[in-house]
Amino acid sequence: MKRIYMDNAATTRVTEPVFEAMAPYFTEVYGNPSSIHSFGREARRAVEKAREQVAAAIGAKPVEIYFTGCGTESDNWAVRGAAYAQKRKGNHIITSAIEHHAVLHTCQQLEREGFRVTYLPVDEYGVVKLDELEKALTPETTLISVMAANNEIGTVQPIAEIGRIAKARGILFHTDAVQAVGAIPIDVQAMGVDLLSMSGHKFHAPKGVGALYIRSGVRIQRFMQGGAQERTQRPGTENLASIVGMGRAVELAVADLPAKAAKVSAMRDRLMRGVVAAIPESRVNGHPTQRLPGNCNVSIRYIEGESLLLSLDLKGIAASSGSACTSGSLDPSHVLLAIGLPHEIAHGSLRFSLNEENTMEEVETVLTELTGIVQRLRDMSPLTPESLKTV
User: Fold this and answer.
1) Which positions are annotated as active-site residues?
2) What is the sign, positive or negative, of the torsion defined by CA atoms of 298, 122, 338, 94?
C-alpha cells in the first residue's frame, strides 16, 4: 500500500540536502560554539551562517535573529518578554481568538499575573476584523500579537495593515509566522512587525529548533536565565546541527517560492473543489483565496473527524482532524468555533496540508478514498438523513 502524507502543517520531512548539511555537525564539527578554540570557532561560524540564511529569508538583519528550541518557545518569549518589558507603559495586550495555543495560553497566564488581554473576533473566513482592533486599542495597549497564517484553516491575516496600525500608536507587534515562513513571502520590513516567531520543522528542518526575530532597538525580557549564549538573550548551548539544518532548509524553502506555491495551490484547489463536488453536505473552512498554498480544511456533516482520520490512516493517508478529540477534549477546535461553525459540523472536520513533495496523483487518490470512506461511515450513522444513505 502506497502511503500518502498530507499532514505537513504538523511537521515536514527532513529533506536530503538539509540532512547532508547537518551531518558533519554531529560527528566532525562538534565543538561548542561558545568555546574559543578552533573546534568552537568552526561551530560558531556555522551558527552565524545559519543566522544569515534565516535573516535573508525574511528580510531581516542577522543580528535580529535569535535561535530557540521551537516555535512555541519563540511565541512564549515574544509575548511574555514584550509584555513585561513594556509593563511600565501599560498592561493591555491584544491578540486574536484563533491564535495557536502557544500564544493563547501565554496570554491567559499573563491575565492571571495581572495583565489585561483582548481576544479579537474573526469573520466567517477567520480574518481578524481591523475595525475591532482599532476599537480595542487603549492608552494602556503595549503589544499586539496576531498570527501571519492560521495553522488549522490556513487563512492569511492582513499583517501589513495591522503593522501600520501598531506603528502609528507606538505599540509592539508580534506575529506567529510558524505556518507562514517557507510557504508564503515574508518581509518583516514590509509587514511592519517587531517580533516574529518561526519553527524549523515546518519547512523541512528537524524538530527542536526555531527562531525569534527581534527588530533592532526593541527590548524584551529574557525568557530563561543562564549563560550568555545568543548575545546574552537566550541561554543554553546552541543546537548546532539543527541550527545548520534550519539555515539550509529556509534557504531552500524560499528559493523559487512563487513557482512552488503555484504548484501546491493547484493541488490544494483541486482537493477543495473535489471534496465539495463529490461529497454532499461538505464545506471548505477558511478564506477561499487568502490562504496558505497547501492548506485544505473541510467539514463533512454527520461524521466525526476522528473517524475520518482513522479510516484514512487505514488507507495509508495521513491528515489531521479539526476536532480536539485526540487530546481528551470533547470540544472541537477553538478556531472552527470562532469562525461560527456549530459543534456538530466542527466535529466533522479534516485538515489536509500539502507541500511541493505531494503530487496531483496523490490528490486524486485521496479524493477517491475519502469519498468512499464518507459514504461508508454515513451509511452506518444514525444521524445521517436517509437521502444521503445508499443502504
Assistant:
1) 325
2) positive
What are the pLDDT digits (tens) for 43-92? 999 999 999 999 999 999 999 999 999 999 999 999 999 999 999 999 99
- Give pLDDT tens digits for 234-264: 999 999 999 999 999 999 999 999 999 999 9
| Global confidence as pTM | 0.96
**Residue 115 in contact with residue 91, Cβ under 8 Å?**
yes
